[in-house]
Structure formats: C-alpha cells, structure tokens
Amino acid sequence: MARPSQYPLELRRRAVRMVAEVRPDYDTEWAAMKAVAAKLGIGTTETLRK
Question: What is the model's pTM?
C-alpha cells in the first residue's frame, strides 16, 4: 500500500491546474512542473509528476 501524501488534496489539485495553465509558457512539461513545484514549495519536480 502506498503511503499517504504529505501534501493536502487541495494543494495537489492546485498544482495540477497550475501546470496545465503555465504549460504553454515552457518548452517542456517537465520545465512547467519544475516551475510550479518551486512556486508551491513542493520538494522535488518528481513529487509533482507523481
């Protein structure tokens, strides 16, 4: 069983929305996720990707 997320559900939903909104501003989806993770204080880009 996967361990529970340390991030609240609303933060995770917001992060997904933000990546979708800023994606056109970046060359890759990874770059967009990296920017959003930094803005929201999420530990790593990989955490946001999952």
Answer: 0.83
